[in-house]
UniProtKB/TrEMBL annotation:
Binds 1 [4Fe-4S] cluster per subunit. Its EC number is 4.2.1.-. It comes from the Eukaryota. Residues 567-699 form the Aconitase A/isopropylmalate dehydratase small subunit swivel domain. Its cofactor is [4Fe-4S] cluster. This is Aconitate hydratase, mitochondrial. Belongs to the aconitase/IPM isomerase family. Transmembrane segments: none annotated. PROSITE patterns: ACONITASE_2. Signal peptide: none annotated. It holds the Pfam family Aconitase.
Amino acid sequence: ATHSSTIPRNYASITPPYPTLIRNLEHVRNVLKRPLTLAEKILYSHLTDPVNGLGDGGRIRGESYLQLKPERVAMQDASAQMALLQFMSAGLDQSAVPSSIHCDHLIQASEGAKADLERSIVSNQEVFEFLESAARKYGIEFWRPGSGIIHQIVLENYAAPGMLMLGTDSHTPNAGGLGMLAIGVGGADAVDAMTGTPWELKAPEIIGVHLTGKLSGWATPKDLILHLAGRLTVRGGTGRIIEYFGPSVHSQSCTGLATIANMGAEVGATTSTFPYTSNMQSYLKATGRGPVAQAADEAAAQGFLSADEGAVYDEVIEINLSDLEPTINGPFTPDLATPLSKFGAFIKEQGWKDELSAALIGSCTNSSYEDMTSVADLAQQAKDAGLTTKVSFLCTPGSEQIRATMERDNVTSTLQDVGGTVLANACGPCIGQWKREDKKGEENAILTSFNRNFKSRNDGNRYTMNFLASPTVVTAMAFSGSLSFNPMTDSLTLPSGEPFKFSPPIGKDLPSTGFTPGDTSFYPLPTPEPQPNAEVIIKKDSQRLELLEPFTSPFGNGENLEFPPLKVLMRVRGKCTTDHISAAGPWLKYKGHLTNISENLLITAVNDEGGDVNVAFDHDAPSGTTETDTIPNVAKRMKARDQPWALVVDDNYGEGSAREHAALQPRFYGCNLIIARSFARIHETNLKKQGVLPLWFADKADYTRIGSGDVIQTVGLADLLEGKPDAVIILKVITREGQTFEIPTKHTMSPDQVKWLRAGSALNYIRSMMN
Ligand code: F3S
């Protein structure tokens, strides 16, 4: 029996509109006339025009642009700032779809849950106030600090089989554990959904992962995705959805599936999903959503929530769970996978110290009831034997509901008895919000059950080797303090000299007495009434928040549809990720202040003319000589002179995250055009949204022919803007020395994206459509 009545929520009825979706799908079937994968069913049933949206039904995956209508938006506190500032400038009274804000990223872990929360609320007060006041005005659900981590709250309250939602965070796919498509996007994409504008996605390819066999002993769903990350690598999922199928999907818990979907982001997948299972049904009921489960049962009976017999995938990967052993990935990249049995030898080979310095569990990836009870089982075994952890052992619960249920069921006390500390319900060390006092600047190794392990991510120390593993492996290792310890085969020595060996951990999928909600004041009303007269609070002299000024269109009223002559700011050399374009760390606090954050523009990029970092040349300095300055400063000089500019960049420009500041900032300083050897897909779209034209060199060798201070004139852009999608844009280059030549380019602009460019930004276009 579930005791959902104790959960003070009215989220029970948040059900996708199954009858409409199923009807939409019938239209699509009439066009496609072939078996569909589950991901296709969910995507195509959310087309804004299911009758004509797929054209003649030819090749779609990897080719066509889909115009979609997501059902919900979730935003975390760091990315919500820019998302809301953009939404505000669209001028609507309320969000067109139910939306929520989650305060989780800005809470710093240091002493423990209570003190950390109080301190972080004070230090981020103006941001939280802004978010809360915007939520009030526009009728958005506001989950205040302490309520939990975005993805766990979405899974517990909003996620439902067959649904399509967007989240302004790369691990949004976590909700795929409930058999839906949840996609991580930038704020401008969230604004599409919130303004009721069709959200455009290039139809992804679909990888099928066929699961057979049975997990046993220490192997968990986390190990499945760690293993798969090793096989696919960090790029293997780019532009693709991972859809799992096969008998063994049904033997995993819903939260285990969520862990797998969460880390699909690590291979670059658009999202991951699973067919509806009875464990999903149980999870929906246990979290107070019986009506959603019932509706999903009916939709599943009509074949909506699984792939059709004979559906074809772009690639199929076979995984036999019976062969899977615990896996440890890292350091510094999530796709360096080593089976647990070989990990000791791996450490030795590398010549690394066989020493663990901290063990961290929880986060959005792994803080389910099942994870926590499995971990508590190990802690209890150790406690009974008289052991405590050898290293700092920290746990971040994913939500207030998990925290309170852990406490009630003595999980918390068991962890504390062996030396564990339970942190606030927030991201904490997973996003670097960890005030770590030891090992500063020293090489050391940590194990976490989180999802990402880029350099410096957790404690800001680039010498910290961060390994990813299941929560149970992390916990067992915390008792040994050594990296070569294999809890499946090795024993620890008790103070008495006796050997002690862990039994494989046993956890519980769901609490037998139901979840307890904990502090009920954390739960907002579902889709509250908007209050159009409420004021959005931004302090006058705020250094952290600033209203957005719309970007002006470079084409004015349309009398000239070529760009004005553009000056080249610089030629960027080599790898240039969104981190190079808009650095994180101390700059995070300016996420809501475009003027302030723009001071970090390209500060770690390499100038191909000279090879220096953060150096650019101003060829039009008032002194009459070429002056050298930082990149943001030269960009600012050009802005001050009203000189629009262009950037020449190398391969895979903008790889990494969906960070839209990397597109907003150059645009803010006056960038109109970026010419690349190639672009990373999400960043390329972000540029288009902000009104920057991304062009590809038709011949990559032309990259070296353009330098700083050269002037570029476009020829053929007017054709594109006037609706000729096949228009070829030629760049007429006049070098600093006065030489002229032409360079052919390619573009990937869809008809809608052309309208954004002409309007100066997607937001300008949306605003013009509203009026
Ligand atoms: Fe937060 Fe880490 Fe997840 S930053 S949202 S806990 S990936």
